[in-house]
Design a protein that fits this description.
Number of strands: 4
Radius of gyration: 13 Å
Shape: globular
Order of helices and strands: EEEEH
Largest sheet: 4 strands, antiparallel
Helix content: 10-25%
Strand content: 25-35%
Oligomer: single chain
């Protein structure tokens, strides 16, 4: 899901074998930037930042407003996948 038509951020939702619940992966200009997990509950979501990039010249620098918007959009959408056990 694109954040909006002017943003270079994209959000992908998937079930990662390392986690019990759904996860959200956020990419910026096709580079994996971070993943959000919610294995410890919606109120205890965790953000895992990637530190190795495909393009070695990639610099993880973003406009603060865009970064906060994608973080909020990803966590809000991810919470819709929450499954109580």
């Amino acid at each position: 899901m694109k954040l909006d038509e002017f943003s270079d951020f994209e959000i992908f939702f998937f079930s990662d074998v390392d986690y019990e619940q759904m996860t959200a992966q956020v990419e910026y200009k096709s580079e994996q930037v971070f993943q959000i997990t919610m294995d410890e509950g919606i109120k205890n979501m965790k953000v895992i930042f990637f530190t190795e990039f495909v393009d070695t010249a990639f610099k993880p620098e973003y406009k603060m407003g865009d970064f906060m918007a994608v973080l909020n959009a990803a966590s809000k959408s991810l919470s819709e996948y929450w499954e109580d056990e």
